[in-house]
């Protein structure tokens, strides 16, 4: 949830570069603290071989404080890095340069590809090190990697295009909403040119883009109806109103992404727990259940390459859209995948439970004689869904946010994942409680998965995803894309040229009149 705060400081005060740099230092501090918490004897509980955790010596208050302090420090660092580093990357492409603009369309594909290369390393090499070597090295390696990555980032500082902060986005939006409410009885003129707007020169001087008035969310147009005061809480420019509209228009789409983010949370929770009940040996090698997430990563990496190199080019020839399909269509395909994923997961779990019953393993909860590889379809499909939905999500919220609120827009996609995790916990506890209280058995979700009914739970998720997909189709049907920034600039330049020509013409006419009057 912290990326909203990180985005706020970047857009309002520090700028994206400095916010990212300061947050990276906090992130490195958190990783260093976490590494110390599992390495120094006094900061970790003594080893315990007893299978019953209740009989082991508990961590002291100091040990818990250091460990959780490190985790919350990481959360703060994440808040400043996540919404800003991808935004800095996208800012390097010039919207007004045709070649750079076309390259930017592929940027988020390769951005996610790079991120998931790191995830693949984490889910394979790091998980193996943590399980077989120790936590000190398992946390020490990513800490060292983070320090090196910060140095690489700093090495390129002089080459970056830096965007200046433009003041608090929340204040700008609040002024529009309050001004519209205070003037709720005012009639909005039918001609948008009668609304209050700054001179063209004000925008060009500050490197900003003017946005023309749109009919959507018409109530907010009351904020720019001219009155006898210039109080910013009573009168806002058309551009300021349109920026607020752009951020508000994205909220229904944001809400539609919460449930898919909840599905992503299952990868490292219930999907992994299923893996612990299955045979994990392939020859002499035992697959750690946490490494199953690597199949999601591999699937996403392959899917992103296929999408960027083949699907996008083929679709472009059919649709004439530079992206192949628009961003919301790409998100919709990812959401449709989530319905299929949960249906597949439900059928696989039903088969697993049937084998557990056949072998009398329901009550004792012992390992089911099935290979862990039967879970591969749901992991692979999840990676394919991410290649559509997660890449499109971060691109959509960046692309559709106003120029001065890009970090805040990008934070929407991070917030979606945070809300998804909270929602996952809420659904898990609520469904578990309701099915225990009102069901004819002990509940759908128990510690003993062989006695649970995860197949019902996954089927429930499939229904929720279907309803969410219908909701997404509804809100996306009415969504109005913002005008391309480069198009807005072209219009602005035309108006400035026309205005300049008018001034030249008027000046020449005045000069001619003066000469005629002088001759007379």
TrEMBL record:
Key words of the record: Membrane, Transmembrane, Transmembrane helix
UniProt-annotated location(s): Membrane
Lineage: Eukaryota, Viridiplantae, Streptophyta, Embryophyta, Tracheophyta
Protein name as catalogued: Protein NRT1/ PTR FAMILY 5.2-like
Record flagged with keyword Cytoplasm: no
Membrane topology summary: Multi-pass membrane protein
Family: Belongs to the major facilitator superfamily. Phosphate:H(+) symporter (TC 2.A.1.9) family.
Gene3D superfamilies hit by this protein: MFS general substrate transporter like domains
InterPro entries in the record: MFS_trans_sf, POT_fam
Organism: Datura stramonium
PANTHER family registered for this protein in UniProt: OLIGOPEPTIDE TRANSPORTER-RELATED (PTHR11654)
Cited Pfam families: PTR2 (PF00854)
TM segment ranges: 17-38, 107-129, 141-160, 247-267, 287-307, 327-348, 368-389, 410-434, 456-475
